[in-house]
Amino acid sequence: MIIACPACSTRYVVPDSAIGVEGRTVRCAKCRHSWFQQGPDLPVREVPVAAPASAAPPAIMPAPMPSAAPVPAAAPEPEAHVYGADEPVPEPPVVPRPVVRPAARSAEETFDETASSFEHEPPFRPRRNMAKLWTMAGIGFAVLVAVLVALAAWLGVPKWLPAAHATFGAGNPDLVLSFPSERQDRRTLPNGTEYFGASGTVSNVGKQPQDVPPILIVLRDAKDKVVYTWDVTPPRDMLKPGESVTINEAVTDVPKSAKVAEIGWKPE
After folding, report:
1. Which CATH class for the 175-265 domain?
2. CA–CA separation, 28 and 9 (whole Å)
3. Rounded average pLDDT over 88-105
4. Alpha carbons within 13 A on the beta-carbon side of 238
5. What is the rounded CA–CA span in Å between residue 44 and residue 52?
6. What is the pLDDT of residue 128?
7. How far apart are the first and last CA of the chain?
8. pLDDT tens-digit profile of 61-75?
9. Which of 33, 196, 200, 226 lies 20 to 30 Å from 182, alpha-carbon distance?
């Protein structure tokens, strides 16, 4: 018998004995669809009826037919898989449903007079408010400056900053440092060497002995920029009340741009 798959209409040639009179469940080998196939119909036996006795008509010989081209034999139908009594029947395959997309709306339907082209809609980001950003940045900078000022007042200004400390130290008020300008000598030697000499005194005007700290000599150019410095160690480490000590210092190879000399206590 010939059976056809209800899903893909593929036809198969199956022996009648494989289906049986009661029918069986079969599966399509092409699309894997399973269905119950009814058995073949039983042939109806016809009882022959005796023809009345009469004179037999003369036999008429059929006219010869012209020879026709041979009809090609049809390709054999593929055999379908027949499940046995103990073989489970698989579930039919799930055919995905087609995705139906909504039809595009016309320009009249999509136009909205109340909508603004500058409003943001997902997934677009909102427009940035630059004034708000600058305000937040200014507040953050002000907070940072306030924190740094508070730290400087609490811990002191770091020494690595250019204006972190003064050029000279505060010194002891009982120690008087005197280096008059008329006792400073700045000239060029005959061999072209730049020479600078300074002479002065350190006096203890207090009523207690005082330790004499190091002295710092600073040379500046016409723009008040420091171009040369050196330390001077006093000849005495301590002065009693009313005592004084004279200091004479001279250096060579100082920068030619040096114009002004400043002398004070070396900062700690």
Report:
1. mainly beta
2. 10
3. 61
4. 4
5. 24
6. 73
7. 117
8. 544 555 555 555 555
9. 226
For CA atoms 14, 17, 19, 22, the dihedral sign is positive
Is the omega angle on the peptide bond into residue 123 within 30 degrees of 0, that is, cis?
A: yes
CA distance 180 to 265: 15
Contact 216/231 with Cβ under 8 angstroms? yes
Report the distance separating Cα 183 and Cα 196, nearest Å. Answer: 11
Q: 218-228: per-residue pLDDT in tens?
A: 999 988 899 99
For 142, the token pair is 């002000």
Residue pair 19/36 in contact by the 8 Å Cβ criterion: no
Choice among 45-49, 211-215, 233-237 with the minimum mean pLDDT:
45-49
Take residue 243 and report the two structure tokens written for it: 């005592």
If one counts every other C-beta atom within 10 angstroms of the C-beta of residue 262, the result is 14
Q: Which among 174, 173, 224, 177 has a CA at the least distance from the CA of 198?
A: 177
For 101-153, what is the HEC assignment? CCCCCCHHHHCCCCCCCCCCCCCCCCCCCHHHHHHHHHHHHHHHHHHHHHHHH
Strands 184-188 and 215-220: unpaired
